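tool=predict chain=A
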Amino acid sequence: MINTSKLAQRIADARREKGLTQRELAARVGVSAQAVSKWERGIACPDISILDELAGAIGLSLPELLGVDQT
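tool=predict ok
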């Protein structure tokens, strides 16, 4: 099961590390800046159809984004 508060924090931290604004990240993955804000506050989760693109945009692998241990 995905911990949404940790997912929210991973998205926010990775976005900031890449030097992206919420608006810039939103444009890269085709959503609104408000959607990114909701993800980062843990109010909503990204749609499964854009998870791979989101992970790439913030420099994470999909397992890293989701917090999945691959060992």
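The CA atoms of residues 8 and 18 lie 16 Å apart. The longest helix spans residues 4-17.
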